[in-house]
């Protein structure tokens, strides 16, 4: 109990510090616009775009794992299905905040609805995100409705008040009501499955259709994004279940954690295959526009992001920990494997966005135009880091509040069926 309290105190200390730092970043962003950002005339996308596709991947991956239960009836993962939905919702909010602050005129975001351009890939992304966001809210509500009702009836204080508000006046806790809710959740999950595939594959397509950037231009990108979403979302859920599940020590917990480990291990191995295909084909082809960004990734000034982050933390560490019998059955090491994947994919997303932009489209362009903004080097500014840290802190705060107030904790099969 004492360790738990110390852990929560440390967690909230990190959250508060992150929000304070983020407050400074928000002030700089609102008062100076993009002046303090370090991207320029060549590298026009930076940290915020990378973090946007990172959190979109976490959201899509978590939702697709929840679909195993709600759409494909894989009851083995029922205890974490609701947590997966909640994680997908929080991750989506963080992704949208990152890309919103990256906009030149944040206040004009509504024009994508009021003045639609049906030929714009970005416009389609916004419409799909909106539909996905609404679907997540409704699916989570119908999945949790009876728990909101029970919580409002049984608990007092602030927690009970929140539950009564979220119940939206519903009082039905009968089995027939639960069956109706489950049917609605199945329908929403069936709608959300192709939606999640479309919008995250569409993010890959958003890069893939940029013919001026050969490193992005190709049909493999949508598939790469979907595989990465499953790996990162699965790793996050595995870490959350390993460290936060209330029924640690039970045979059911150990069995489910082992199954999650095998699922994530299979996804990591699939990611290894796709990554090898992406890099080997481009390097073998020898087209400069394809090869130069990969050389920059593997041997440039930030080589360690690829070799230590993407390969080491994202592949080698989880494969060893999830394959070795001694660590694959350990709560601590399985959680470490999951968090290793989650951290590694920050580097994966940075490598997708920045190195292809660092290669000038015209040879000699950097020297021909004497401007500090005409550079192939990019390191996020203090403002970019500060605002990014603040958004992550906000996501951590919302997750902790929701985890403690809402019925999202992983539960045993008996609890789920009751």
Describe this structure in words.
- The chain has helices spanning 2-32, 47-70, 78-102, 111-114, 121-154, 157-167, 175-208, 221-244, 251-285, 288-299, 303-323, 325-328, 331-357, 365-368, 382-405, 413-417.
- It is an all-alpha fold.
- Helix 8 (221-244) runs antiparallel to helix 9 (251-285).
- It is globular, with a radius of gyration of 22 Å.
- The two termini are 28 Å apart.
Brief overview, please?
The chain is mainly alpha-helical and 418 residues long. It has helices at residues 2-32, 47-70, 78-102, 111-114, 121-154, 157-167, 175-208, 221-244, 251-285, 288-299, 303-323, 325-328, 331-357, 365-368, 382-405, 413-417.
Number of helical runs?
A: 16
Named at the architecture level, the CATH assignment is Up-down Bundle
Reading the helices and strands in chain order gives HHHHHHHHHHHHHHHH
CATH class: Mainly Alpha
Beta-strand residue percentage? under 5%
CATH topology-level name: Formate dehydrogenase/DMSO reductase fold
- Oligomeric description of these chains: single chain
Note the main sheet. none
Low-confidence stretches: 413-418
């Amino acid at each position: 109990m004492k360790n738990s309290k110390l852990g929560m105190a440390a967690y909230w200390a990190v959250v508060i510090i992150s929000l304070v730092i983020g407050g400074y970043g928000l002030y700089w962003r609102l008062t100076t616009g993009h002046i303090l950002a370090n991207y320029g005339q060549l590298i026009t996308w930076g940290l915020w775009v990378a973090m946007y596709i990172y959190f979109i991947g976490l959201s899509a991956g978590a939702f697709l794992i929840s679909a195993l239960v709600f759409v494909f009836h894989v009851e083995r993962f029922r205890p974490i299905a609701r947590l997966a939905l909640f994680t997908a919702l929080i991750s989506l909010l963080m992704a949208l905040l990152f890309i919103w602050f990256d906009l030149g005129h944040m206040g004009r975001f509504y024009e994508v609805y009021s003045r639609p351009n049906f030929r714009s890939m970005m416009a389609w992304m916004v419409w799909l995100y909106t539909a996905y966001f609404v679907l997540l809210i409704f699916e989570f509500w119908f999945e949790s409705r009876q728990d909101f009702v029970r919580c409002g009836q049984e608990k007092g204080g602030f927690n009970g008040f929140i539950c009564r508000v979220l119940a939206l006046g519903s009082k039905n806790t009968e089995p027939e009501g639960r069956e109706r809710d489950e049917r609605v959740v199945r329908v929403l999950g069936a709608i959300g499955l192709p939606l999640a595939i479309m919008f995250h594959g569409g993010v890959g397509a958003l890069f893939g259709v940029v013919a001026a950037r050969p490193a992005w231009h190709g049909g493999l990108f949508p598939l790469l994004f979907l595989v990465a979403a499953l790996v990162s979302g699965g790793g996050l859920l595995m870490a959350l279940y390993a460290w936060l599940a209330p029924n640690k020590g039970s045979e059911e917990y150990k069995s489910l954690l082992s199954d999650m480990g095998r699922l994530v291990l299979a996804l990591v191995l699939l990611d290894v295959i796709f990554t090898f295909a992406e890099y080997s084909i481009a390097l073998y082809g020898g087209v400069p526009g394809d090869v130069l960004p990969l050389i920059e990734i593997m041997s440039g000034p930030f080589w360690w992001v690829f070799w230590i982050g993407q390969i080491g933390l994202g592949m080698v560490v989880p494969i060893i920990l999830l394959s070795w019998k001694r660590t694959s059955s350990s709560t601590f090491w399985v959680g470490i494997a999951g968090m290793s994947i989650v951290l590694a994919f920050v580097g994966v997303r940075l490598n997708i966005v920045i190195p292809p932009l660092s290669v000038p489209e015209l040879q000699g362009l950097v020297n021909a135009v004497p401007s500090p903004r005409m550079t192939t080097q990019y390191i996020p500014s203090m403002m970019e880091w500060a605002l990014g840290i603040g958004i992550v802190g906000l996501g951590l705060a919302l997750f902790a509040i929701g985890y403690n107030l809402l019925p999202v904790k992983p539960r045993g099969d008996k609890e789920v069926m009751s």
